[in-house]
Amino acid sequence: MPASAQIFLSYSGDEGCEASLLQFAMETLLAEFGVKVWTYQRDQANDTRSVASSLKDQVKRSRATVFLASPSTVKGSATQWMELGYADAFEIPTFVLLHRVTFAKLKSKDRGVPPFLTEGQCLPAVEWKRVVDDLRRIVSRNGS
């Protein structure tokens, strides 16, 4: 069955294993809506000439973005901040999961962290299932 809704999962390359597990769990829990959780590791075409343009397009066609923030994000994951910026620009609902990092640590980075990121958008990653209910509402009200 083709996906009827896409969710973009942003993560640092260092968190590929965690992202794969989260991707599988979300697709399983949202299977009734035909949801595809897009990740770079699994879904980016190898022959893409402009990865940045492809990421922008994938965020734009998504119904929601899940941003897995980690210490690697704080160290300098410019691509993740760019993806978060695209989600904000396209007004895509965004959920931030804090994995081994606090909001204070995330915001303590001198540059790169968008000013629109608020603590209210963030949850500890261990509470990821709370996001699934919100995602379910988003994909069900937007139809196919």
- Return the string of H and E elements: EHEHHEHHEHEH
Average pLDDT for all residues: 87
Distance between the termini: 12 Å
Envelope shape: globular
CATH architecture: 3-Layer(aba) Sandwich
The name of the CATH superfamily reads: Toll/interleukin-1 receptor homology (TIR) domain
Number of domains: 1
Give the number of helices. Answer: 7
Plain-language structure description:
By secondary structure, this protein is α/β, with parallel strands linked by helices. The chain has a single domain, classed as Toll/interleukin-1 receptor homology (TIR) domain (Rossmann fold, 3-Layer(aba) Sandwich), CATH 3.40.50.10140. 45% of the residues lie in helices and 17% in strands. A 5-stranded parallel sheet has the order 2-1-3-4-5, sandwiched between helices. Helix 1 links the parallel strand 1 (5-11) and strand 2 (35-38). It starts with a strand and ends with a helix.
Properties at a glance:
single chain, 144 residues, alpha/beta, Rossmann fold, 5-stranded parallel beta sheet, 7 helices, 5 strands, 45% helix, 17% strand
Strand and helix layout:
Elements: E1 5-11, H1 16-29, E2 35-38, H2 40-43, H3 51-60, E3 64-69, H4 71-76, H5 78-89, E4 94-98, H6 103-107, E5 122-124, H7 129-142
Parallel strand pairs: 1-2, 1-3, 3-4, 4-5
Helix pairs in contact: 3-5
